[in-house]
Write a structure and sequence with these properties.
The protein is α+β, with helices and mostly antiparallel strands. It contains eight helices and 24 strands. The strands form six sheets. It has a four-stranded antiparallel sheet with strand order 3-2-1-24. It has a four-stranded antiparallel sheet with strand order 4-5-6-7, with no helix packed on it. Strand 5 and strand 6 form a beta hairpin. The radius of gyration is 23 Å and the shape is globular. This is F-box domain-containing protein.
Length: 403
């Protein structure tokens, strides 16, 4: 693994070439002349569209590096947007950071198994709700939940969405983003839950939908939940918004439930509580993710006598409204986190699930296709004091998608 400084310089040098064009031509005519003499004829006879197509099969970081080889490859990388549309899904990266004034941390490239210094240009603090899909990452400000940003972290382009209607501050919020891989349009769903003042068992539950094609908030539903409240976990999968809700009555052993809302439907809207599915066992926390259009949940399994104390971590997949257990974390990996609280960070994309505790920078990866657990390479960040907190999320690196 490269030293920390070397890794940082590599990312900054290569990413700059793909992010913005330099006004100063870094390739002299003398260098071009030498390239023409020494390069293989294979490169010179390839049409530009074929060269771009070849690049599109590479991992994103390899494409960025290719842009620094010569002037022709630099041009192919910058002009290959049509080829990038046909890129296969990329292995996800995981961005890990420690809570501080700025959201600066390290990105783990699961293709090359390397960490890079990384930052998000649109963020000025750490407290955000986060959701990612197909190259884009959506952020909602924890303090001002009407402030919502959509960003491509590789090209470093971003956009702030217009404020959603009825911008009252809720008690609990959840955020979900879904990108259409064909049209490259995206949908943002904001779920808000607020306790009603007259009855502590009743919660106002609101879903607001934003569509990038219209640049508008196009739908909003409102319902009152009895004995249940919304939380901070939701995801969009196959055109359906899934949200975890939490029992508020105190007499339900399974304190988590799953409700769903079809984003596109010509039928009358049914009650979201009418579609509720209970979780498979008592959980300390649940994390939802869309893996290849399959709804997957990672949950901390609570003890039967003390459901608020975690005894393990499980992974389930929803099949026709029934939870199917995929795997349970082996005890040696569970112990490898050291002290694991009842809540933890977990996100996933494609076939990979990332699990991280808030108290340490250790990152565990589960491969759904091979049913294998493995630790990532050690993150360069170090824990400086006992109460230092860490968090993170994953995203798919892509070049063609803009906000």
């Amino acid at each position: 693994m490269p030293m920390e400084g070397e890794t940082s310089q590599e990312w900054q040098r290569t990413s700059e070439l793909i992010i913005r064009d330099s006004e100063i031509d870094p390739f002299s005519r003398e260098n071009d002349h030498k390239t023409e003499i020494t390069s293989a004829s294979f490169d010179t006879i390839l049409p530009d569209e074929i060269l771009e197509k070849i690049f599109s099969f590479l991992p994103v970081l390899s494409i960025i590096r290719a842009g620094s080889v010569c002037k022709r490859w630099h041009g192919a990388v910058h002009s290959g947007k049509h080829s990038w549309n046909n890129m296969p899904p990329q292995k996800p990266w995981y961005f890990m950071f420690t809570y501080s004034k700025n959201i600066v941390g390290y990105a783990y490239d699961s293709s090359f198994r390397k960490w890079y210094n990384f930052d998000f240009p649109c963020l000025d603090k750490c407290n955000w709700f986060v959701s990612s899909s197909c190259g884009l990452v959506c952020f909602m400000d924890y303090e001002n939940r009407n402030r919502i940003l959509v960003c491509n972290p590789i090209t470093r382009t971003w956009k702030q969405l217009q404020q959603p209607p009825n911008g009252k501050s809720p008690d609990y919020s959840a955020l979900a983003l879904s990108v259409d891989r064909f049209s490259l349009s995206y949908t943002v769903a904001v779920v808000k839950s607020r306790q009603l003042p007259d009855d502590f068992l009743q919660w106002d539950f609101t879903i607001q939908i934003y569509e990038s094609e219209n640049c508008l908030w196009v739908a909003s539903i409102n319902e009152v939940l009895e004995g249940w409240r919304g939380g901070d976990e939701s995801v969009i999968c196959n055109g359906v918004l899934y949200c975890l809700v939490y029992s508020f009555s105190g007499n339900n052993e399974r304190r988590h439930g799953l409700v769903m809302y079809k984003l596109c439907s010509n039928f009358p809207r049914a009650s979201v509580m009418g579609s509720m599915i209970l979780v498979p066992c008592p959980l300390t926390c649940g994390r939802l993710m869309n893996l290849r259009d399959k709804l997957v949940m990672v949950g901390g399994i609570g003890r039967h006598d003390r459901p608020d104390i975690i005894k393990g971590i499980g992974i389930w997949e929803l099949e026709k409204e029934e939870w199917q257990e995929v795997a349970r974390m082996p005890h040696k990996f569970f112990q490898g986190f050291g002290e694991l609280d009842d809540v933890f960070a977990s996100s996933g994309a494609e076939d990979l699930i990332f699990i991280q505790c808030y108290g340490a920078p250790a990152l565990l990866i589960f491969d759904m296709s091979h049913k294998q657990w493995k630790w990532s390479l050690r993150c360069p960040v170090t824990k400086r004091f006992a109460l230092q907190l860490f968090s993170g999320f994953c995203f798919e690196p892509r070049l063609e998608i803009t906000s």
